[in-house]
């Protein structure tokens, strides 16, 4: 099938979790197949894209790497807007990062609910 005739889909994926749990490493490993042991903390958000072919459909993943620091969580609505899903990340060596998973989940659901209720009203 001609590539130009294939259906294209864009999915926005946001990566959430505490600061320093490896969100940037995970994203770079998945997209670029690269690992760097030294990363600087993400400020705000950054995103990369990855194209996949699933059957006859081209899927572009827009993967947003969000800062885990609490001071950036208030910027949430802009990051969450248009998100199709999220990946919540923790560090197996840091118990606290596991204990906060539900907070990240609740924040995601809250932000999506606020965005949808604003959109639907």
Automatic annotation (TrEMBL):
Keywords: GTP-binding, Lipoprotein, Methylation, Nucleotide-binding, Prenylation, Protein transport, Transport. This is Uncharacterized protein. The keyword Transport applies. GO terms for molecular function: GTP binding; GTPase activity. One of its GO terms (cellular component) is endomembrane system. It is found in: Endomembrane system. The keyword rRNA processing does not apply. It comes from the Eukaryota. GO terms for biological process: protein transport. It is a lipid-anchor. Belongs to the small GTPase superfamily. Rab family. It holds the Pfam family Ras.
């Amino acid at each position: 099938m001609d590539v130009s005739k294939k259906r294209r889909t864009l999915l926005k994926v946001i990566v959430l979790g505490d600061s320093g749990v490896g969100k940037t490493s995970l994203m770079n490993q998945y997209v670029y197949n690269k690992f760097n042991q030294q990363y600087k903390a993400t400020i705000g958000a950054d995103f990369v894209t990855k194209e996949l072919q699933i059957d006859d459909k081209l899927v572009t993943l827009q993967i947003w790497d969000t800062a885990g620091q609490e001071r950036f969580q208030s910027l949430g609505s802009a990051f969450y807007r248009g998100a199709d899903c999220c990946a919540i990340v923790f560090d197996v060596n840091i118990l606290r990062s596991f204990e906060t998973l539900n907070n990240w989940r609740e924040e995601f659901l809250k932000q999506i609910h606020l965005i949808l209720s604003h959109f639907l009203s």
